[in-house]
Design a protein that fits this description.
The structure is a homodimer of 196-residue chains. By secondary structure, chain A is an all-alpha fold. Chain A folds into two domains: 9-60, Arc Repressor Mutant, subunit A; 69-188, Tetracycline Repressor, domain 2 (Orthogonal Bundle), CATH 1.10.357. Chain A is built from ten helices and no strands. Chain A has helices at 9-32, 39-46, 50-56, 69-77, 85-98, 102-117, 119-124, 126-144, 151-173, 179-188. The relative contact order of chain A is 0.10. Chains A and B meet through helix 7, helix 8, helix 9 and helix 10 of A and helix 7, helix 8, helix 9 and helix 10 of B. Chain A binds a DNA duplex (30 and 30 nucleotides) through residues 8-10, 13-14, 17, 38-40, 48-52, 54-55, 58-60.
Chain lengths: 196, 196
DNA sequence: ATGATTATGAGAGTAGACTCCGATTTGCTA
DNA sequence: TAGCAAATCGGAGTCTACTCTCATAATCAT
C-alpha cells in the first residue's frame, strides 16, 4: 500500500535477503516436499541464521503464502453496474490476468500449486479463502442491491468460486491448461445465473 | 464393511473406550479449541494413558475426522439414469439425509463445524475432499457417457460442490438453517446446467 | 569519524505431537 | 484355575517449529 520507494541501502539489502530466503525455500519445498524440509535447511540454503529466517517469516507457511487477490477485488468492484454477477467476475478476471507480469506468473503458479496441494498450506489459507468469499459476496450483493447474506448471493458466489477452484486445480496440475481462458470458458456456462 | 457383530467383552470394552476418548476430546475441543487442547488433556479427561489415546487415534486430527460420504456416493450412483446431473445430486442428497439417524446428526454437525472452521482439520480433510471430487466427477461423467476429466463435467461438479459448500458453511454456523432443504433449494438454481 | 540504530548470528530453551518399550493388568481359553 | 494373548500403563525419548537473549556487525545520521 504505502510502499515507500525510498531505497536506503539497508532496505534494498533486506528485500534481497527476503527474496533469497523465499526462493531457496520454494526450491527446497519443490524438491523434497514441504513437510520434509526443515527451517534449518532453509536457513542453511540461504546462508543465514535460523533466527533470521523466522524474523522474515514468522511461520513456515508464510514462506509460501501470498495475496494477489486485491487486484481482482478492485477489478470486480469497478466493473460496470449493468453487468450480471457472472459477467462481472469474468471481466474482472480478465482484467486481473492481463495486468500481471508474466515473469512472476510462473512463480505464482508454483506457489498456487503448493497451496492447493500441501495440506498445511491449504489450512493456513483457510482465512484467506473465507475472506475472499465474504468480500465477493459483499461486492456482488452491493451490485444487485441485496444483503451480503442473501441466500441467492451466497449460492451464486458458491457456484462461481466452485468452478473457479475446479479449473484452478486442473491448471495447477497440468501446465498445458491456460488458467485464464479456461476459467472464462467455464464461467460462461454459469451465465444463466442471475440476481436482482 | 465386514463389521463382525461378535461381541466379546474385550471388543465391547474397546469400542466403549474409543467412544469415551473421542467424546471427551470433542468436548475439550469445543470448550477450549482444537489447538489449545493437548493430547495429555484428552488422555486425562478420558482417564487413560496418553499412549492409549495414540493407539486409538494415530493423530490428533483423527479424533475429529469421519466419513459419511459413502452413503451419498451410493445414492448418487444408483440415481435414475434419465435425471440430469443436478437433479441426480439433489435426489441423492435427499436420500442420504433421510437415511440418517437424527441422534447422530447433532454430533455430525458439530464435527463438520470444526472441520470447516479449524485450519488443521481443514487441512487433513484435503485428501477426503479431492477424493470426493474425483468420485463425483467419475459418477457424473459415467451417467452422461463422458470422460471423467471432461471440462464440462469438471465445471458442473465444481459448481455443484461450490454451492453445497457455501450452504454447508452457513448451516454449520447458524443452527436455524436446515442443511437439507437449503441445499436442495440452492441446487435447484443450478438446474439450468446440463450435460450430454 | 563517531555514536545511535538496526540487522544478523549463534545458541540455549520451550512446547507438544508422536514413538518406543518394558512392566502390569485384563479378558480369553482349556 | 493356569496359562496365553491382548490391552494398558507409565515414562523416557525424538523431532521440529518457534521464542528469547545477547553479542557482533553493518548502516545511517551528523
Amino acid at each position: 500500500m504505502t510502499e515507500r520507494p525510498a531505497p536506503g541501502l539497508r532496505e534494498r539489502k533486506k528485500a534481497r535477503t527476503r527474496k533469497l530466503i523465499q526462493s531457496e525455500a520454494l526450491r527446497l519445498f519443490r524438491e523434497q516436499g514441504f513437510a520434509a524440509t526443515t527451517m534449518e535447511q532453509v536457513a542453511a540454503a540461504a546462508e543465514v541464521a535460523t533466527s533470521t529466517v523466522f524474523r522474515y517469516f514468522p511461520t513456515k507457511e508464510d514462506l509460501v503464502l501470498m495475496d494477489h487477490l486485491p487486484a481482482f477485488v478492485d477489478a470486480l468492484t469497478s466493473a460496470p453496474a449493468e453487468l450480471g454477477p457472472v459477467q462481472a467476475v469474468r471481466l474482472a478476471l480478465r482484467a486481473t490476468v492481463a495486468g500481471q507480469d508474466p515473469a512472476e506468473r510462473a512463480e505464482g503458479l508454483e506457489r498456487e500449486r503448493m497451496m492447493l496441494t500441501v495440506p498445511e498450506l491449504w489450512a493456513s489459507s483457510l482465512d484467506n479463502v473465507t475472506g475472499v468469499v465474504a468480500t465477493m459476496r459483499g461486492i456482488l450483493a452491493a451490485r444487485a442491491g441485496r444483503e451480503p447474506d442473501d441466500p441467492d448471493v451466497r449460492n451464486i458466489t458458491g457456484a462461481v468460486l466452485g468452478v473457479l477452484l475446479a479449473v484452478w486445480f486442473d491448471a495447477v496440475r497440468r501446465p498445458e491448461v491456460d488458467l485464464a481462458t479456461e476459467a472464462d470458458r467455464a464461467l460462461s456456462q454459469l451465465e444463466g445465473l442471475r440476481l436482482e
